[in-house]
Amino acid sequence: MVLVVGATGLVGSAVCQKLAQRGEKVRALVRTTSSPEKVEALKSAGVEICTGDLKDTASIADACKGVEAVISTASSTLSRQPGDSIESVDEAGQLGLVQAAKNAGISRFILVSFRRRADLPFPLSDAKAKVEAAISDFNFTIIQASYFMEVWLSPALGFDYASGTARIYGTGQNPISWVSFLDVAEMCAVALRHPAAERKHIEFGGPEALGGLEVISRFERISGKQFRLEHVSEEALVAQWKAATDPMQKTFAALMLLYALGDAIDMQPVTSTYGIRLTSLDAYIANVLGEAPAADSASS
Q: What is the mean pLDDT of each run of 10 residues along the chain (300 residues)?
């Protein structure tokens, strides 16, 4: 049995579906406040539903019973649930899950994390570092993902491809290995049983590293529409990061600054080792603009 924590989130729900398709027995941790539609989709895939909350240690202990592996994709950054915060979910909640897994004798732990820099500390980065260190005693896999296309290249963060307006952080020249959350979910599913993934940190991005301006050019070419751009300077982002006192605000300021600085990854070793076919930026663009099916992808 594999316990997936964060099972109704962006990555977690896809992890559950992919594991179930592989014939794995999957238990999904969901909350009483979770979307009924998302819970029903998990049930329809044959996933066992377990009700609990990372902030409730007793429910986490129950969820870990009879489990051989844990995959945690949980994070407060996209949550709208009362009481969720970086401290309560990404740090205390995740560390509580690690302890519950240890108490239950679970040996395998896969964590979805993200890439960061030691010279740019912020609350979410600090929390992830603590959790990564805490699972070092497990047969672990830590997937350090780059920027999700579906989040950072979406209207939610000022990238409104429907209206042809976009926000660019920094100069837009520094390349980023934009990645699909579906590919991160696939990496989790593959890593579960792949010997090469054991006790490994896996830096994970998409097949191309492209600056923000090149991303805009791709959107313009495929849509035939010229975009209006809003630039947020690196200096403004540094000032915002330094001035922020709220943990979530400081975290997003830092993530935007890291975007401005770039995040390129050579994915050839990963795709060669694990046989994962990565979603191209062009396929993502065509999909969100309604020009092509979502399955279009390209390997690096």
A: 96 98 97 94 97 96 98 88 90 98 98 92 96 97 98 94 95 97 98 98 98 97 94 96 95 96 97 97 94 42
Report the SS3 class of residue 169. strand
Element (H, E) at 191: helix 181-193
Task: Record the pTM.
Answer: 0.94
β-bridge pairing 108-114 and 139-145: parallel
Name the architecture of domain 1-145: 3-Layer(aba) Sandwich (3.40)
| Beta carbons within 10 angstroms of residue 235's beta carbon | 10
Burial label, 6 (beta-carbon count in 10 A; 0-12, 13-18, 19+): buried
Q: In CATH, what number does 147-179+206-264+279-300 get?
A: 3.90.25.10
Cα–Cα distance measured from residue 159 to residue 165, given in angstroms and rounded to the nearest whole number: 6
